[in-house]
Amino acid sequence: MSVRFAADIGGTFTDVVLDKNGLIFSTKLLTTYKDPADAVIQGVDELLLEASVEPEQISLFLHGTTLATNALIERTGAKTALLTTQGHRDVLEMAFENRFEQYDINIDRRPPLVERPLRVGVSQRNSFDGEEIIPLNFDEVSRTIRGLCEQGVESFAIGYLHSYANPNHERKTAEIVESIAPNASISLSSSVCPEIREYERLSTTVANAYIKPLMAHYLESLQKQLQIKGLHCPLLLMTSGGGLTTLDNAKEFPIRLVESGPAGGAILAETLSKVQGEPSILSFDMGGTTAKICLVDDGVAIQSRAFEVDRAYRFKKGSGLPLRIPVIEMVEIGAGGGSVSRVDALKRIHVGPESAGSDPGPVCYGRGGQRVTVSDADATTGKLYPKFFAGGSLALEIEPAEQAIEEQIAKPLGLNVLDAANAVTEIVDENMTAAAKAHSSEWGKSMNGRVLVAFGGAAPLHAANLAKKLKISKILVPKGAGVGSALGFLLAPAKYEVVRSFFTTVSRFEAQAVSKLLDEMREEAKTVVNQMAQGPFIEQVRAYMRYVGQGYEVSVLLEGVAQIDVHDLLQRFEQTYLETYGRVLADVDVEILSWTLSIEDTSTPIESFDFPSTSPGKDFEPGESELFSEGELVSAPVLWRDSLESAKEYKGPLLVTENQTTTIVPKNSILTLSERGVLQVSLGETL
Question: Which of 141, 164, 643, 659 has the least C-beta neighbours within 10 A?
Answer without folding.
Answer: 643
